[in-house]
């Protein structure tokens, strides 16, 4: 009778060269190991071992069975991996994301991971260019970027729109554009673009360009921007999700404006490959969570 367990025992025996070590490694008895070998010899009607006291050598049939067993388990593992790749509940998700989006998405993904124990997550923070290059190089499968990408071998699709907000120290009492400017600006990697879009939309006559802002500090890690604002050193413009993901909400606040301006997030993937369903499931769950969070009265 064909039994994969007999092949596993035989592989271990050949690799250890010892019945004792094989039994210990597999949690068996030595007679149990011998029985599995005899079962294989009966199955193939050929001797697999040339026994010499406590030692043994493989017969020609034994070498062929060993090679076959290795192929058998390698093909089994490849099939298991391929099947897992197609599952929503299992397999690996390989993402790269701009930091301004990933600050909230990554903690959400960790919670999602906890509820899907067969899922694995590989997540890297990167700028737009680096994230796209990693998709092309097959280091990741999906990039989440803040600018639209044009490439013949990639598919770039809109994913969501995040609201940009002005964040000021909690005790800031100013109401005018000039009072905001007097605080100074805390810059970050996308700070100039964010601030220019939002301020131009809300102060079309007063805002003449980014040169009007005095940059008190510039930091390339966006999570440190709100630390700086919390210390009363200036204001910044960020996606609302960055502020919501920060530990500085008590020391800072949103400076409300009349005109809402959105910041786009795009997904980028390889054009001729279809992503496993688990990627879309995770993205859809995050969108639903954001919609629910945004509709709450305290938001």
UniProtKB/TrEMBL annotation:
Transmembrane segments: none
SUPFAM superfamilies noted in UniProt: Periplasmic binding protein-like II, Winged helix' DNA-binding domain
Pfam families, sorted: HTH_1, LysR_substrate
One GO molecular-function entry: transcription cis-regulatory region binding
InterPro entries linked: LysR_HTH_N, LysR_subst-bd, WH-like_DNA-bd_sf, WH_DNA-bd_sf
Domain HTH lysR-type: start-end pairs: 1-59
Keywords: DNA-binding, Transcription, Transcription regulation
Domain of life: Bacteria
Coiled coil: none
Entry's family note: Belongs to the LysR transcriptional regulatory family.
PANTHER family, alphabetized: HTH-TYPE TRANSCRIPTIONAL REGULATOR (PTHR30126), TRANSCRIPTIONAL REGULATOR LYSR FAMILY (PTHR30126:SF99)
Protein name as catalogued: Transcriptional regulator, LysR family
